[in-house]
Amino acid sequence: MKLSAHHPTTAAPRATVPHQRTAPVPDRTATDSALLRTGAVAGLTGFLLQVVMDRLHPAQADPNDSRAAFREYAHSGIWTAVHIGQFLGTLLLALALLALARVLARQPGLPGALARIGAVTAVLLAAVFTVQMAVDGVALRAAIDTWTQAPAGPARTSAFQVAEGLRGLEKGLSGFFHLTNGLTLVSLGLSVALGSLYARWLGWTAVLAGLAFLAGGVVTAHTGFSPAAGRVLTPALLLLSVFVIGVCVSMWRRADPGFTGSHA
Prior knowledge:
- Helices cover about 75% and strands about 0% of the residues.
- With about 260 residues, the chain is an all-alpha fold.
- The model is unreliable at about 1-10 and about 15-25 (pLDDT under 50).
């Protein structure tokens, strides 16, 4: 008789790995498309808003002749509203530049570094302009109203001196706004011109506009709202208009998922 031994086999225990949720990987293309479209709309809207506000702003008197300018401003019923509009227009333009800088910053090397610098100065220019509009659109208007309503004599003289002091502060803020605007345009312009994402002529247009704004800021800081400052800032504004319109159109085109060109 044959004896057979049964050797029970023990199955090795299975290690159960708990189900781990992996965070979804963000779709950078979709994010960039939304950012570029938002930036393009913000830039064009801000540009148009600034054009409208510029038309509504009283501008008959010499801005460097405080008495004449203050009398003109005192008769404007939409003074504060115009400056709120100017603030919103510049804020939208700054948002467009930030959207552009975010995409440009992904470039390697110097173009990416310049885009990051441009992003910082874009935030700074929006902050400086906000303070300027608060001084010009609210504080200065209140001082002018006090001056025009004060009786002749020492009280009227003191009120005018207060308004004149605020006007000096506004001129200083305007000069430094142009300086930060110039630094932003030079940084982002060089990032575009030295990079490969957008048409290089747009970058060089921004660089020229930025250099003109830098010069205009220096002249404004020294001479206020003078004809000399105007002669420098007028071509700067024209170049800025070309750059804003061109880069916003390019941003919108690049946001298209089917875009395949190396330059927009």
